[in-house]
Amino acid sequence: MRLRSSAGEAKQRSETTVAAPPVKTILVAGGGVMGSGIALVCALGGKKVRVLDIDAAALERARRAIEQKWRFMTEMALARGDSDRLVEDIAFFPAEAIEAAAEGVDLCFEALPDSLVLKREVIGRLNTAMAPRAPIATNSGNLLVDEIVASMADPTRVLCAHWINPPHVMPPVEVCPGTHTSADAVEMTMRCLRDVGKRPMLLRRDVPGRIANRLHFAMLNEAIKLIDEDIADADDIDTVARYTFIMRGALFGPLGALDVYGGKESSLKILDYLYEATGNPVYAATAVHRARAEVEKTSGRDASRWRSGELPDRQTCDRQVAALMKFLKANEAVGHGTQDSN
Ligand SMILES: NC(=O)c1ccc[n+]([C@@H]2O[C@H](COP(=O)([O-])OP(=O)(O)OC[C@H]3O[C@@H](n4cnc5c(N)ncnc54)[C@H](O)[C@@H]3O)[C@@H](O)[C@H]2O)c1
Predict the structure, then answer these.
(1) CA 182 to chain CA mean position, Å
(2) pLDDT of res. 18
(3) Is 67 a catalytic residue?
């Protein structure tokens, strides 16, 4: 390991993005669970990578984590290459050398612990030390970009790039601009993520939970409430979820699955019934859903689709669902799932 210790809104995003330069050198601030995976992805994607962490011991843990994740990737045939060289090429900097770490960097992925005070302090220092325009993308799960940049001299380069754990495996990264983030910063971050093989999803604005946590935790809480209300056991709840909407959702997403398998009007009826019966605001149907149901009634299912992209025809979808079902059942046979009664 080489240890380096030497040293607004739409109007604000309206500037041109054509000139946004490509990202060559990336700083990953925080080499823990997320940062080590992010660093690996960037190194595998051909970027020059630097990792910043507290001290030599933390950096050694980060280096080992990167190697371990790299071995996992090669075992799973998700990566190829020479691990020694890959890790040798990563430069490691302790926190005291933050200015040296930031020099000449084109983009920073920040993966520090989720503390507002710490993120403000470190991002504030990076903001001064990094070249103008180089984006700083926070991975924070619970802090919004606008909270982090409050009272920061230049908030235009700060945005959120929310990687999903494990970051070296999961394809999507949620990219969320704050109120003041520039179009350049967004474009450079999106391009860099695509370069390293990720699927960046651009949200129109930064909101609590973004997409993944908002959907995931709404469902998770409902599952836990079923236990709390003594309706069913966890194994049975998981079996119903895995072999129904999660299985279809894994292939087509919840909205795509509704386009393929369900009607807008019938789903609306179920929501209205659940809302009336439970009073739970999670089930309160939206105006946009009612409007789609109306389009379905007057112009048919195709006209009322949520998804604009191509979805396979129903027969192909059924085949894919059956193939996934076989995979899940095969996993149960080796003890990785709950046993259903069929
Ligand atoms: N773990 C997850 O599942 C997950 C998923 C998505 C997003 N996130 C977000 O990613 C961020 C990082 O989470 P994590 O789970 O990787 O945390 P972690 O605790 O595993 O890693 C944080 C790293 O930052 C280092 N660090 C602390 N202070 C530092 C400083 N002053 N300078 C440099 N490095 C410092 C720590 O030593 C540690 O290695 C958080 O904002 C979290 O909300 C986490």
Answers:
(1) 21
(2) 56
(3) no
Q: Which of 3, 36, 53 to mutate to test the pocket of ligand 1 (most atoms within 8 A of CB)?
A: 53
Cis peptide before 135 (omega within 30 of 0): no
Nearest 5°: phi and psi at 221? -65, -40
- 140 CA closest ligand 1 atom index: 41
Q: Of the candidates 186, 185, 178, which has an alpha carbon nearest to the alpha carbon of residue 210?
A: 178
Question: pLDDT below 70 — which residues of the chain?
Answer: 1-19, 81-84, 333-342
| Cα–Cα distance, 228 to 233 (Å, whole number) | 10
| Contact predicate 62/51, CB 8 Å | yes
In order of 72, 180, 206, 275, the CA distances from 196 in angstroms are 18, 26, 23, 43
Enter the pTM of the model.
0.91
Q: Residue 53 half-sphere exposure, CB side, CA atoms within 13 Å?
A: 23
Residue of 47, 7, 6, 43 lying closest to 25 (CA atoms): 47
Contact 140, 113 (CB under 8 A): no
Q: What are the backbone dihedrals phi and psi of residue 225, each rounded to the nearest 5 degrees, phi first? A: -65, -35
Q: Is the CB of 49 under 6 A from ligand 1?
A: no
Closest ligand 1 atom, CA of 114?
41
